[in-house]
Amino acid sequence: MCRNPSTSNLGAVSHLEPLVTDPNASQQQKVDCLKLLKIVLKNLSDKEKRKDSKYRQLRLENEKIKNKLIIFPCASQLLIDHIGFLKVIDETTKEQILRIDESSAIQNDDIISTSLQYILDAITELSTATPAPAKKYLSEKQKARIMLEEKEKQDKIFENQQRKRNLALMKKEKALKSGDSKAGKLSEKQRARILLEEKQKQEKLIDHEQRKKNVAMIKQDKFVRENDPNWKSGVSAACAKSGTGISTFRDKYGEN
């Protein structure tokens, strides 16, 4: 976090920095916890509200408190160690609560204000930060479907390009046979050579497109391997079935 804490703010920083930088918590969880702390401290800093005991206590069994604040121990410790809350048992309900008396809230008014400012800054920073993309885990079915869709897409592209090349070659051949050429009529040898050159050119293009297709499939396969937690390297299905690898001539008969 890019802040320069004041001396009075060090308690808030030391307690909440682990929350803000926690790699195991989502951005939304952090913001929810900080927003709840903001409400608590704003109520304490309000001279009228802090006279009312309901604004100076938190019921630890409350679902909102449990799900948003208690999941971060450092947040509740901030209230106890730094703000002045005490963990007590409610005499009526026998529930565990965090409570601060009015005199302690007044005495710690500066600490509450500086902690509140730190929390507001942290909320702003987290809210404007770009969340890290969640890792996408794929099932075997999803992985197979993605691979199949990519293969079908590449096959379709390849077929369309092949049709275009064949059509261009047919037009060229037709033009040569009819003698439609800027150089005038061509001999059979010249036509044959031009057609051969055109065919070789088309074959090169086909090879190039096939390589592009293979590269795309390799990239897709790499994506699946990196995003599928169940993927692991291993022997091929044929090898697993037979229990042996593919033997080469050298494996069977040696170097000589």
Describe the structure.
The structure is a single chain. The protein has about 260 residues and is mainly alpha-helical. The chain has two domains: about 5-130, Methane Monooxygenase Hydroxylase, Chain G, domain 1, CATH 1.20.58.2190; about 140-230. The protein contains ten helices and three strands; from the N terminus they run H-H-E-H-H-E-E-H-H-H-H-H-H. A three-stranded antiparallel β-sheet has the order 1-3-2, with no helix packed on it. A hairpin with a 6-residue loop joins strand 2 and strand 3 (about 95-100). Helix 1 (about 10-20) packs antiparallel against helix 4, helix 2 runs antiparallel to helix 6 and helix 7 runs antiparallel to helix 8 (about 190-225). The longest helix has about 40 residues, at about 190-225. The model has no long low-confidence stretch (mean pLDDT about 80).
Total strands: the figure is: 3
Q: Give the spatial strand order of the biggest sheet.
A: 1-3-2
Q: How many discrete domains?
A: 2
Outline? rod-shaped
Helix content: 55-70%
The quaternary state of the protein chains shown equals single chain
What is the annotated CATH architecture of the largest domain? Up-down Bundle
List low-confidence stretches. Answer: none
Could you spell the SSE succession in H and E letters?
HHEHHEEHHHHHH
What structural category characterises the helix and strand content?
mainly alpha
Q: Sheet with the most strands?
A: 3 strands, antiparallel
Task: Compute the CA-based radius of gyration.
Answer: 36 Å
What amount of the residues lies in strands? under 5%
CATH T-level fold name of the largest domain: Methane Monooxygenase Hydroxylase, Chain G, domain 1
Q: Mean pLDDT, nearest integer?
A: 78
